[in-house]
Amino acid sequence: AQKVTQAQTEISVVEKEDVTLDCVYETRDTTYYLFWYKQPPSGELVFLIRRNSFDEQNEISGRYSWNFQKSTSSFNFTITASQVVDSAVYFCALIYSSNFGNEKLTFGTGTRLTIIP
Amino acid sequence: DTGVSQDPRHKITKRGQNVTFRCDPISEHNRLYWYRQTLGQGPEFLTYFQNEAQLEKSRLLSDRFSAERPKGSFSTLEIQRTEQGDSAMYLCASSPLGAKNIQYFGAGTRLSVL
User: Fold this and answer.
1) Pick from A31, A82, A117, B12: CA 20 to 30 A from residue A53's CA?
2) Angle subtended at Cα B44 by Cα B3 and Cα A52, rounded to the nearest 5 degrees
3) CA distance B52 to B37
């Protein structure tokens, strides 16, 4: 069974602080992909990053960085120098192939991030 | 490229009525997905199309739900005899063929059943 756990339901930080969103996953697959999506109040899920299970290198994109650790089944997301525009719900997700060749996403319950000006 | 488009954005209906939502995927994306998201939860998979073929349906999709993608382009999701428990955000996503491709989401249709 596939499962994604985001234990932090809500986080509030003051603008310019750094913040880390945690994601822990469970899968029996040896090959899998992990994702982070952002959902602003408008509702649309915005893709942020995809990482495959063979690549454990950390990734940085501007103020965003991701730490993938297979040993702890974690894929954490850090925002450096947070801004008010970062306020949103962030979802971690896992993709696997079902028997039908479908690749459906399994999402965590999300972390609501509020940046206080 | 325009993104995934969903219509309507909001729908309020009375219990027992039928509703239909539309999704226009990114052009040339073969795969189309429907997800349902309830308050405080992540999206949950409902069904999947590859071109016009509906290849998988979740157990979440009761007999009152039906989805189509008649020409492999836009898709519709119909809910018959709506119940209050159907109130949720219905999200559509599309992706090109290929392993583990990124799914691009629309803004969703928020359904409220009174």
Assistant:
1) A82
2) 70
3) 24
